[in-house]
Write a structure and sequence with these properties.
Pfam families: AHSA1. Belongs to the AHA1 family. This is SRPBCC family protein. The protein contains 6 helices and 7 strands. It is of the alpha+beta class. It has one domain: 2-Layer Sandwich (Alpha-D-Glucose-1,6-Bisphosphate, Chain A, domain 4), CATH 3.30.530.20. Strands 1-2-7-6-5-4-3 form a 7-stranded antiparallel beta sheet. A hairpin with a 2-residue loop joins β1 and β2. α5 crosses α6.
Length: 176
């Protein structure tokens, strides 16, 4: 497993990954619906501040694992709708994300070249509470692992099995 996400401020989780470049390739996997759907979610994404982001999650399609019972219908397919809050291709993308507390949280992707590779810093802010931080950290960690598999040309690891394992670890890490 890659390095775990960390709490950097109240209700904020940050994960860092290094992916094979160039930076335009990683930007495409963030912003182009057909590329994004193989590791995160399909759906349109505006390329300007204020534009709409619609993410349609189908986790079982990422690795063809059965959705655990406890996630019910939301585990099979759900939709997030938010707005772009920052966009500076190919370095910075931020957008709002519905939070379990009813307010909007915010996800930021920062990309910077590191030789032939690209450093991605993903920061998710304004999360409602510790359970949401655990869920979000586990989810992002899993999605970034699947992106890593896709970029390396490997068969993607199982979404649900990876998520469930990571959730246990994040529950321990974020409770201390």
């Amino acid at each position: 497993m890659r390095e775990f996400g960390v709490v950097t401020a109240p209700n904020t989780v940050r994960l860092e990954r290094v992916f094979p470049g160039p930076i335009e390739r990683i930007w495409a996997y963030l912003t182009e619906p057909e590329k994004r759907r193989v590791w995160l979610a399909a759906g349109p994404m505006a390329d300007h501040v204020g534009g709409v982001v619609e993410l349609r999650f189908r986790h079982s399609e990422l690795s063809h694992e059965t959705t655990p019972e406890r996630f019910g219908e939301n585990g099979r397919e759900f939709r997030n709708v938010g707005n772009v809050t920052a966009c500076d291709p190919p370095h910075l993308l931020s957008f709002t994300w519905p939070s379990s507390g009813g307010d909007m949280s915010e996800v930021t992707f920062e990309l910077s070249p590191q030789g032939n590779d690209v450093l991605m810093i993903l920061t998710h802010r304004r999360l409602a509470d510790r359970p949401e931080m655990t869920s979000v950290a586990s989810g992002w960690h899993t999605h970034l692992s699947i992106l890593e598999d896709q970029l390396a040309g490997r068969k993607p690891r199982g979404f649900w099995s990876t998520y469930m394992e990571l959730e246990k670890e994040y529950e321990k890490r974020l409770s201390s």
